[in-house]
Amino acid sequence: MAGIPKDWGVEIVSPSSGTASLHASAGHGASSLFDLQKWNGVVQISGTHARCMDLSAVITTEIGERRKEYHFSGRELHLRK
Q1: How far apart are the first and last CA of the chain?
Q2: Cα 55 to the chain's mean position, in Å?
Q3: How far apart (Å, rounded) are the C-alpha atoms in residues 79 and 81?
Q4: Which of 8, 15, 40, 68 could make an SS bond with 20 (beta carbons 3.0 to 4.6 A apart)?
Q5: 55 within 8 A of 77, measured Cβ to Cβ
Q6: Under 8 Å CB-to-CB from 12, ≥6 apart: which residues?
Q7: What's the pLDDT score for residue 29?
Q8: What radius of gyration, in Å, describes the C-alpha atoms of the chain?
Q9: Which residues have CB under 8 Å from 60's CB, separation 6+?
Q10: What are 15-46's pLDDT values in tens digits?
Q11: DSSP state letters, 3-46
Q12: Which of 42, 69, 74 is nearest to 56 (CA)?
């Protein structure tokens, strides 16, 4: 990973069940993003099994007490080679 936006934290949970998870969160409200362009190209998956992965993404936004989740399948994600 390279280029993580300022005041953001990233945690990668290793696969105990064959599924790895990546979690990213802003330090506080001033770190919020108005679009996801700052994350473009930050996450790269490589290795011998990269082609065998079943990818998906869940993006959660929180503004005050309002919380919304956006679910994306691997087909909906824009993957670069």
Answers
A1: 15
A2: 11
A3: 7
A4: 15
A5: yes
A6: 20, 21, 22, 23
A7: 61
A8: 14
A9: 67, 68, 69, 70
A10: 777 777 888 887 766 566 677 777 777 777 76
A11: -PPTTEEEEEE--SSS--EEEEEESSGGG--SSSGGGTTT----
A12: 74
- Residue 6, pLDDT score: 78
**Cα 16 versus chain centre, distance:** 19
pLDDT of residue 52: 60
- Give the span between the Cα atoms of 2 and 7, in whole angstroms: 14
**Nearest partner of 11 among 28, 27, 26, 23, judged by Cα:** 23
| Residue type present at position 67 | R
Half-sphere exposure at residue 10, Cβ-oriented, CA atoms within 13 angstroms: 11
Q: What residue type is assigned to position 18 of the chain?
A: G
